[in-house]
Automatic annotation (TrEMBL), chain A:
It comes from the Bacteria. Keywords: Cell membrane, Electron transport, Heme, Iron, Membrane, Metal-binding, Oxidoreductase, Transmembrane, Transmembrane helix, Transport. It is a multi-pass membrane protein. It comes from Paenibacillus hunanensis. PANTHER family: CYTOCHROME BD-I UBIQUINOL OXIDASE SUBUNIT 2 (PTHR43141:SF5), CYTOCHROME BD2 SUBUNIT II (PTHR43141). It is an enzyme of class 1 (oxidoreductase). The chain crosses the membrane at residues 6-25, 83-103, 115-138, 158-179, 200-218, 224-247, 254-279, 299-326. Pfam families: Cyt_bd_oxida_II. It is found in: Cell membrane. Its EC number is 1.10.3.-. Belongs to the cytochrome ubiquinol oxidase subunit 2 family. The keyword Nucleotide-binding does not apply. This is Cytochrome d ubiquinol oxidase subunit II.
UniProtKB/TrEMBL annotation, chain B:
It holds the Pfam family Cyt_bd_oxida_I. Coiled coil: none annotated. The keyword Transmembrane applies. It is an enzyme of class 1 (oxidoreductase). It comes from Paenibacillus hunanensis. Keywords: Cell membrane, Electron transport, Heme, Iron, Membrane, Metal-binding, Oxidoreductase, Transmembrane, Transmembrane helix, Transport. Its main location: membrane. It is a multi-pass membrane protein. Signal peptide: none annotated. This is Cytochrome d ubiquinol oxidase subunit I. Its EC number is 1.10.3.-.
Amino acid sequence: MLSLNELWFVLIAVLFVGFFFLEGFDFGVGMSTRLLARTDGEKRLLINSIGPFWDGNEVWLLTAGGAMFAAFPNWYATLFSGFYIPFVVLLLALIARGVAFEFRGKVGHRTWTAVWDWCIFLGSLLPPLLFGVAFATMLKGLPIDSDMQMYAGFFDVINPYSLVAGLTTVVLCLLHGLMFSALRTTGQLRERAHALAHKLMIPLAVLFVLTAVLTAVYTDAFRVRGAVLIAMAAVGVVLFVLAGYFISKRREGWAFGMTGGLIALAISGIFVALFPRVMVSSLGAAYDLTVYNAASGPYSLKVMTIVALTLLPFVLGYQIWSYFVFHKRLNEKTHLEY
Amino acid sequence: MDVIMLSRIQYALTTVFHFFFVPVSIGLVLLVALLETMYVITKNEEYKVLTKFWGKLFLINFAVGVVTGILQEFQFGMNWSNYSRFVGDVFGAPLAVEALLAFFMESTFIGLWIFGWERLSKKVHLACIWLVALGTMLSALWILAANSFMQHPVGFQMNNGRAEMNDFLALLTNGQLLVEFPHTVFGAYLTGAFLMAGVSAYKLLRRKDVQLFRKSFKISIIVGLISSLIVAFSGHDQAQYLVQTQPMKMAAAEGIWQTTPEKAPWMLFGGIDTDSRSNSYEVNFPLNGLLSYLSYGKFTGSVTGMNELQAQYEQKYGAGDYIPPVKTTFWSFRFMVAGGGLLILLSLYGAWMLARRKMDSMPRWYLWAMTYAIALPFISNTTGWLMTEVGRQPWSVFGLMTTADSISPNVSAGSVLFSIITFTLIYSVLGAVMVYLFVKVIKKGPRDEQTHHDHHGNDPFEMEELKHAVS
């Protein structure tokens, strides 16, 4: 049986997987507004295709943050204060992006729209980049001292490994978003999504291999969890090949499932490699934050378990229903809100 | 400036800004839900037009409220990591529940509501907006449960130098929450109601869409009257509760340095002198024992002054200054109460006119007053929170942890300065854009459904085909 500490580690992993699976595609669609759309109308179609969902998707991140705060206060405190400046940038990106969806169509002026469009693009590009960097460095190790305080210098955060991981996250989200766009649009837009997805497959494969190699070089992941991670990598290869196959066969739903599967696998891979640590200290294993020394008391964890397991099914239920309500493809005749 | 002061400034700036939008969201969504309910029941298209018009304003406001809320959830860990470590066990739980229970509900059903006008049946669509309204209330409940713990910590035990939760229900039945929740939520309804009433009054003055705006004026005055009275009563309850649990805050809010006689007079205003720890002058309300009434619900009872409390706290908590910034607390309290009082008078007058069926002959001064009164709830909300949070100083969790001990020791003053500057910049832009869009939407009015999009062609592919045809 899982202990409550372990269960909460799993639950937070699930929340992050949910976040990247869902917000991952709307980040991708946000980026693709600059890459696919050639007219303002096309941009609007893309933005409206994620219109009903992006806010609900982002709540997965807020919930993951809240769950970390409640279940592992030391993790939450060390991570958020240690990555102070990256989190400021992340917040600026998410703030600008969130209002941009609502604001961009409200004034019929070229410059106005252009500014908010840049916010959507950068606001969709920066968060996956920063998360990739953060997760890679959490696994690689950060200077966390005996008081659980992290004093990270520039190169602790920005290094070849973290940058490659960040870039991989960005391209993966973009591909996932392209498949979502292909699923929800018609005509030219859909064609261009397919064409770009095609072009992305080889760079993404290279990035995946590079990330795996650098993970072996910079982290202890394969030494600690070698067998499991290699098995997961093998599944990843299968998913990747299938994604390529379904994209070329234009089976968009299946292809979207595969890119989503890749995201889920990548994120859970990080959590598998971390466990039972939540953050690795580069100053010595004694200073690692773990699911035990970072956690709340047993009473808190028990209460939160009951609450979470009661509420999550409802959340999943109504979120799935909302995807069902808006499953139809958008076209030029659809009434657009944004 | 040191990290403590900078972190406090950032927290104050971002939270005050966030709380301009929160009450508008909570208040407007209720009113929009009421309007849509009227539409579904009466099938009168006018209510649909109104729902869409106020819904548009609600959504602009909601977007800013949502994005500034993300920052709220992150900055405990970013700027107050020692605090997060110390109370995360108790304080994190309501935040996580808020996200799971309220944020998911709000965000999913608002998406369904915005995009679902043509996809959902009328009743399901109506249910969506009511679920958003419910979500905003649940959100308020859980975040206030967390805040109430800071005011009056309950349901915990100390373990290894950390506060650990040992009674979840105690957090939810915290006496502080029971008075703070109705006060804040009805304050939010009041904010939404006066925004709607003020804009409607302005439109009535300009004789624009009179038929429509009479309807929204009526609804908002009724909601405004009910809310303003509940805010006053729950405020009175809260003051009495504070006298018991945080007497220092209440003493500072009333400018009481020396413990009062049995029949305590209520000081209308006075000259707070923090150096000599006394008032240079006092102007008392001519009803003796009023402060006793405000504190205990009866006209006798002495109220303990700050100087005596300071001596008590030194004995209890050790040497230190336990008196909060008195001037800020004192004047914030007065501004809040004055704003609330004016709002009650304005809604009483409006309700009286409605009751006498004089909707058509509202005097112009009253409509103008209502237009300017849009600002009043914002003043009261802000000063109310200033009093609550500043008046609790030097504590972040009353009696348990000081604000100075709560900061992130690993974050430099330079980093906090950087974030203050960038957040202030982006928030200023958001604030300006938001006001601009509000004015624009209000000026355009509810009848003009045309948006700029329709001017340059609905069909994006037509352009595309054209280009191809040419090339």
